[in-house]
Design a protein that fits this description.
The complex is a heterodimer. By secondary structure, chain A is mainly alpha-helical. Chain A contains 14 helices and six strands. Helix content of chain B is 68%, strand content 0%. Classes of the chains: A mainly alpha, B mainly alpha. Chain B: InterPro entries: ABC_transp_permease (IPR001851), LivM-like (IPR043428).
Chain lengths: 368, 432
C-alpha cells in the first residue's frame, strides 16, 4: 500500500520533472534561436542563422504541416470513433495520389503522349508539363478524382475488413489494418511499379520571393485548398447535424448511442470524411514534393500519428494544429540538427507527448 | 505425476510439429530445386538458406512472443532492437584499425554486449512507456525503432556506424576462424580440423555430393544458429513455466487481479520487456552479424521486418513458444522464400516469354482472350504479389482464427492443473 503510493507519487514527480525539463529545453532553444538570428555567440548558444533561412523552414514546414493536418483529421476521427489506430491510413494517401495524378496525367497529356504511360503516371514529367498554372483543369480534376477514389476505397475496405470486426478490441483492428496496409502498398507497387517518379514539371511552376522565401504556385495551392478544406470541416462539424453527431460519437460513443445517433451511418460518414481528406492530402503531397513513390504515404504515417497524438485523439482541430506543429517542428529543427534528423525530432516530440500528456493539447477540450 | 507425463507428451507433440514443418519445407524446396534443375550442391545450399531463415525468424518470433504472447506488451519496434543488438556487437568486435573502427573484442563479448545494449534501450524506452495503453505503446515502439534506424543511417555518425551503406568491417564468423588459418580469406590454408572437415564435405566418392568451402562454412554456421535457437527455446519454455512465467500470464489475462495478489506488475513487465529486447538483439546478431548474413546496414531494419515477424507470430499463435517457431518456419519458408522460386519455375514451365512490363500491357490481351501475358506479368511481379497475399492472410487470420495455429492450446497457469479436479470435491452448491 505504502509502496504503491510512493511509486505513484514518484511517478507524478517524474512526470512533472519531465514536463519541466521539456519546457526548459524549449525555452533554451528559443533563446538560442533569437541569439542565432541576432548573430550573437555566447558559449553554447548563438551562432549564425539567416532570417530568410528561418522563414524558409517555417514556410516549407507550414505546407507539410497542412498536408499532415488534413490527413490527421481522418486518422483522428477513425481512431476515436472506431477505437483503433489505422496503420493503413498512410497508404490511403498513396492510393489517392496515384489515382488522382493518373487522371490528371491523362487529361494533361491526352493525344500527345501514349495513353498507357499516362494512366500509369509513367510518362516523362517534363513532356506532360503538369502544373497548376500550365494544366489547371487536369490538376483540379485530379484532386477531385483522388478524393472520390479514396472515399470509395475507404468504404469498400470498411465493409470488407473492419465491419465484420466491429466488436473486436482495438489491437485486433490495428493488426487487420497492418494487413490492409500491405495489400494497398503492394497493389500500388504492382500497378504503378516500385520506382520513384517525378510528377510535376519543375520548369512550369512559377514562383516568387516573399520575405526572402521562395514561394511557388504549388505551395500556394496547398495553402488555399487546405484552408478551404479546414473551413468546410469546421462548418460541417459546427453547423450540420451530421457533424455534431460525429463530434458526439468521437467524444463519447456510448453516450452518443443512447441519444439515438445511428452508429453505422456515423461510421460511414467518418470514413467518407477521413478517406476523402487522406486522398486529398496524398494528392497534395505530390504538389509539395514533385515526386511520388509507392512508399510515400506509409513513410508519412508516423508523422500523421504524431500530429494526431499531439492534438489529442478524437479532436479534429487538434489534428490540424498538431499537423502544423509537427510539420514546422520537423523543418525548424534543422536549425539545430542535421537534415536527416528532422523526422526523428518530430517523433521525439510525439514520444514526449505520449509520456507526459497522452491526451494531447486539445484533450479534454475535445472537438467542441 | 500426471502433469509430468502430460508435459512430456506435449514436448513430443511439439517436437513433432516442428519436425513435420521442417520436413514439409525440405520436401518443398527439394522439389523446387529439382524442378529448377539445380545441382545437388545448389539444392543443399538452398536448404541451408531456408534453415537459416527459419532459425533467425524463430529467434525473433520467440522474443516477440515473450512480449506480446506472454506479457501482452504490443511491441512493434522489433527491428530497432535487432539493429541495436547487431550494431553494438559489430562495433565491439570489429578490428580497431578498420573503418568504421571497432574495439576488436572477441565475438562472445560482442554478443553479450549487443544483447545488453538492446536490453538497455528496452529499459530506457520501457521505463516510461509500459504504463501506456497498448496502442500508444505500439506507436511509441515503432517510432523508437525508426529513430534508431535514422540514427544509424545518418551521415553525422557515419564514422562510427558506416552511415547509409552500413557497417563494412565485420570480422569473420567463428566457424571460419575455427576452420581457416586466415579467417578473412576463404582460400587460405585450413586448420587441421578445417582440413578434415573440408575433405569430408568435398568427398565425391559417392559421386554426387561435393560441397565446397563456402557451402561447408554456411552449413556449419547455420547449425550454430539452430543450436542457439534450441537453447533460447528451452530457456523460454522453462521461464514461462516457472513462477515468473505464471505471473506474466496472469498480467496478460488480468493485470488488476495480478496486482491485487500483491505482484508488482510494472516491475515484471519491465523485466520481461528488457529480456525480450535482449533476445531481439540476439536475433539481430544471429541474423545479420558475423555468424549470419554478415551484412549490417540501416535499411535492413525498416518496420516491414517487424511486421513480418509479427505475421509469423500470428500464424503460429501468440502465447505459444512452439507456435512461434512453427509460425516463423512457415512464414520464412512458404510465404517469403518459396513464392519467387515457384514463379520462376512456372514462368519456365508455361513458356511465358517477354511478359509485358506493365499491367496495362497485360490487361490488353485479356480482351482478345489471351491470358498468358497477364500470367507472365503476375509471375514477374511475384515479390509484390506475395505481400498482397500476406496482407490478405493477416486479415483472414485476425478475423477467423486470431489464435493462430497453436495459440488455442491453453497453457496451465497454475502450478497444478486446476481443471482436473479430484472427484471427492463435492462441496460446492449446485445452482438450480
Amino acid at each position: 500500500m505504502g509502496a504503491s503510493a510512493t511509486t505513484a507519487r514518484g511517478r507524478e514527480l517524474l512526470a512533472r520533472l519531465g514536463v519541466a525539463v521539456t519546457l526548459g529545453g524549449a525555452v533554451l532553444l528559443l533563446i538560442d534561436l533569437l541569439a542565432q538570428l541576432a548573430r550573437v555567440d555566447l558559449w553554447i548558444i548563438g551562432g549564425e542563422l539567416a532570417f530568410s533561412q528561418l522563414m524558409n523552414y517555417l514556410w516549407t514546414g507550414l505546407t507539410l504541416g497542412l498536408i499532415i493536418g488534413l490527413a490527421g483529421v481522418g486518422l483522428s476521427l477513425t481512431y476515436s470513433i472506431l477505437n483503433f489506430a489505422n496503420f493503413a491510413h498512410g497508404d490511403y494517401l498513396t492510393l489517392g495520389a496515384f489515382s488522382g495524378w493518373s487522371v490528371a496525367y491523362v487529361i494533361a497529356g491526352l493525344g500527345t503522349i501514349d495513353l498507357a504511360s499516362l494512366i500509369l503516371v509513367d510518362a516523362p514529367s517534363s513532356n506532360v508539363g503538369a502544373s497548376v498554372t500550365n494544366t489547371p483543369v487536369a490538376v483540379v480534376v485530379g484532386l477531385v478524382v483522388a478524393i472520390v477514389v479514396t472515399v470509395a476505397l475507404g468504404l469498400a475496405l470498411d465493409r470488407a475488413v473492419y465491419k465484420p470486426m466491429r466488436n473486436s478490441e482495438g489491437i485486433s483492428l490495428l493488426i487487420a489494418s497492418i494487413g490492409v496496409a500491405f495489400i494497398l502498398r503492394y497493389l500500388a507497387a504492382l500497378i504503378f511499379g516500385t520506382g520513384r517518379r517525378g510528377i510535376t514539371a519543375p520548369s512550369e511552376i512559377p514562383s516568387m520571393t516573399v520575405l526572402g522565401v521562395q514561394v511557388n504556385a504549388h505551395q500556394l495551392t496547398i495553402l488555399v485548398v487546405a484552408l478551404v478544406a479546414m473551413m468546410a470541416i469546421h462548418l460541417l462539424l459546427q453547423r450540420t447535424k451530421i457533424g455534431k453527431a460525429m463530434r458526439a460519437m468521437a467524444d463519447n460513443r456510448d453516450l452518443a448511442r443512447i441519444t439515438g445517433i445511428p452508429t453505422e451511418r456515423m461510421i460511414t460518414a467518418t470514413w467518407v470524411l477521413g478517406s476523402g481528406l487522406a486522398g486529398a492530402s496524398g494528392y497534395m503531397l505530390v504538389l509539395a514534393r514533385g515526386t511520388l513513390g509507392f512508399n510515400d504515404g506509409y513513410l508519412l504515417l508516423l508523422l500523421i500519428f504524431a500530429a494526431v497524438i499531439l492534438g489529442g485523439i478524437g479532436s479534429v482541430y487538434g489534428a490540424i494544429v498538431g499537423g502544423l506543429l509537427i510539420g514546422i517542428t520537423s523543418r525548424v529543427a534543422l536549425v539545430w540538427v542535421p537534415g536527416e534528423f528532422g523526422r526523428p525530432v518530430a517523433f521525439g516530440l510525439m514520444i514526449l507527448f505520449l509520456l507526459f500528456r497522452p491526451s494531447g493539447l486539445f484533450g479534454g477540450v475535445e472537438t467542441a | 505425476m500426471s502433469t509430468d507425463t502430460e508435459g512430456r507428451s506435449r514436448l513430443v507433440t511439439d517436437a513433432g510439429y516442428i519436425a513435420g514443418a521442417m520436413l514439409l519445407l525440405y520436401v518443398v524446396f527439394l522439389i523446387l530445386g529439382t524442378l529448377q534443375g539445380y545441382p545437388v550442391a545448389g539444392i543443399i545450399s538452398s536448404l541451408q538458406r531456408v534453415t537459416f531463415l527459419v532459425a533467425v525468424y524463430g529467434l525473433a518470433v520467440l522474443a516477440l512472443n515473450l512480449h506480446w504472447g506472454y506479457a501482452g506488451l504490443f511491441n512493434i519496434g522489433v527491428a530497432g532492437f535487432m539493429a541495436v543488438g547487431v550494431y553494438t556487437s559489430v562495433m565491439l568486435t570489429a578490428p580497431v584499425g578498420a573503418s568504421p573502427p571497432g574495439l576488436g573484442l572477441p565475438l562472445p563479448v560482442g554478443i553479450l554486449g549487443g544483447m545488453l545494449a538492446a536490453a538497455l534501450v528496452g529499459l530506457i524506452a520501457g521505463l516510461p512507456a509500459l504504463r501506456l495503453r497498448s496502442d500508444y505503446l505500439a506507436i511509441m515502439t515503432v517510432a523508437v525503432s525508426e529513430i534508431i534506424r535514422f540514427t544509424y543511417n545518418s551521415n553525422t555518425f557515419s564514422q562510427f556506424t558506416g552511415g547509409a551503406s552500413g557497417f563494412d568491417s565485420i570480422p569473420p564468423g567463428p566457424i571460419r576462424q575455427l576452420l581457416l588459418q586466415d579467417a578473412s580469406s576463404i582460400i587460405s590454408e585450413p586448420t587441421p580440423l578445417g582440413a578434415a572437415i573440408f575433405q569430408f564435405m568435398e568427398f565425391s566418392g559417392i559421386g554426387w555430393i561435393s560441397l565446397g568451402r563456402p557451402d561447408t562454412i554456411n552449413i556449419l554456421s547455420t547449425l550454430l544458429i539452430v543450436v542457439v535457437l534450441v537453447l533460447v527455446y528451452a530457456f523460454l519454455v522453462r521461464a514461462v513455466n516457472s513462477p515468473y512465467g505464471r505471473v506474466l500470464k496472469s498480467i496478460r489475462e488480468d493485470e488488476v487481479a495480478a496486482q491485487s495478489l500483491g505482484k508488482n506488475t510494472s516491475r515484471f513487465k519491465l523485466k520481461t520487456f528488457m529480456l525480450g529486447c535482449a533476445l531481439m538483439g540476439l536475433a539481430g546478431i544471429m541474423w545479420f552479424g558475423a555468424i549470419g548474413q554478415s551484412s549490417v546496414y540501416p535499411n535492413a531494419f525498416r518496420p516491414e521486418i517487424t511486421f513480418y515477424i509479427f505475421i509469423a507470430l500470428i500464424i503460429g499463435g501468440a502465447g505459444s513458444n512452439t507456435g512461434s517457431v512453427l509460425g516463423g518456419a512457415l512464414f520464412a519458408g512458404l510465404l517469403f522464400e518459396a513464392p519467387p522460386r515457384v514463379a520462376t519455375i512456372l514462368t519456365d514451365a508455361l513458356g511465358v516469354t517477354n511478359a509485358p512490363d506493365t499491367i496495362i500491357g497485360a490487361l490488353g490481351p485479356i480482351a482478345s482472350g489471351q491470358l498468358t501475358p497477364m500470367l507472365g506479368f503476375l509471375l514477374d511481379n511475384m515479390s509484390q504479389l506475395r505481400f498482397i497475399f500476406v496482407g490478405v492472410l493477416l486479415i483472414y487470420l485476425i478475423q477467423r482464427r486470431p489464435e493462430g495455429l497453436l495459440g488455442h492450446r491453453s497453457e496451465i497457469a497454475a502450478a497444478t492443473d486446476l481443471s482436473v479436479r479430484p472427484s471427492q470435491s463435492k462441496g460446492g452448491e449446485t445452482d438450480e
